[in-house]
Amino acid sequence: MIILTGNSLTLEQMKEVLYRGQKVGASEQSMEAAAKSREAVERIVSERRVVYGINTGFGKFSDVLIDKEHVQDLQLNLIRSHACGVGEPFPEVVSKAMVVLRANALLKGYSGIRPVVIERLIELANKDIIPVIPQQGSLGASGDLAPLSHLALVVVGEGEVFYKGERVEAGIALQQEGLFPLTLEAKEGLALINGTQAMTAMGVVGYLEAEQLAFESELIASMTIEGLNGILDAFAEEVQVARGYQQQIDTAARIRRYLSDSLLTTMQGELRVQDAYSLRCIPQVQGASWQALDYVKEKLEIEMNAATDNPLIFDDGEKVISGGNFHGQPIAFAMDFMKIAVAELANISERRVERLVNPQLSDLPPFLSPQPGLQSGAMIMQYAAAALVSENKTLAHPASVDSIPSSANQEDHVSMGTIASRHAHQIIQNTRRVLAIEMICAMQAVEYRGVEKMATHTKNFYEKGREQVASIKQDRIFSKDIERLAEWLKTVEFSQFMKKLSFEK
Fold this sequence. Notes:
This protein is mostly helical. The protein contains 19 helices and nine strands.
């Protein structure tokens, strides 16, 4: 079980929860901190102190005082009115991540929410009662208000959930699990929705996929190097050390390890003096993507353990401060950076595909066709890769440079971080398909060169790949091959396979 404290959650732990069925619990100390914070809210209500979000309206209505007898109505009205999400729902794994991250943030003890509400979030995650949360509608400041409102609806027994493979009313799923809807008290609705958990959850899932994809890209590129009789000298350690970037050094080291006993690679001057950049500069380009991903990882792990609602309660309620921790700018920048980093993996991969299929760039059969002319082979696979790469370039435009004022100009600068995280996720899916295309072409190329001459690691990889996609003996519907291989690249099975190949940085 992963114990949430509000301070120590990691991406590796999130992977355990989201993909390996690990349950979550709350530390006693954190629950005590939450209870203490709740006591402060109840004192504020009983003393009739005027505090934003506890007994006032929200946003531009912050100066409107609310009578004590209407405090519960205030919270429910807040949740219902803010549940304005539209479009397709987030993937279930993202919504589950949102629930876990919101519970973790509330456990920091600055939000004034009752422990029973945190317990309910943990129960939702552990019982896989996953809120249906529309993807569109968040500006990424004032928190992810619309998405988190759809999450909060489930706590009060409203809205919809994914449960046991079906999309059902939340009340039905709660009833089947012996749970009852909660009535939100002062500040609790605001505490549930005022945070960055939608963009952060999408970022967590995106990062975990992107990290695996980056490792996969190096192994796929290694097979391409063999298919093109690539020159290994450019990957020499002293070349990488001379520049000094650790991620570049590590990328080159992994490729050298993958190709250590290959009979298909060459040395400079043996067939040609140097390779094109899409081969020779793999450590520099993909190492730079790793630099960006390392930055993203650092920011996500900070945000996963951050108090991002408003107001925050300090000193047993003596200080209740309205700040701006809900503003998603740090994650917006990180997501835009991840978009660029992953898009670049696709850019350079597509250029390697072109070298594999273009008869003017290698001595391989044109388009890797078994009967050039009669059969087109991989010709249109390169088209598909080019289309995906072009789409990525549009999606990679930074969302964080935009801002549209809201709430009658009270909220006059927003991050658009949730849009950035959604676009990053789309880029990752596109890039995986581009890499699947490269892998299909690379497997075909090494067959022409001689599979028996491959390195041990890449040959093992080739054999696993051939279990998914057969050799091209005749033209067929390659769309199915691309999708099948892309799905395989995403699986846990492949992650375990990579670990056997020293799948660590």
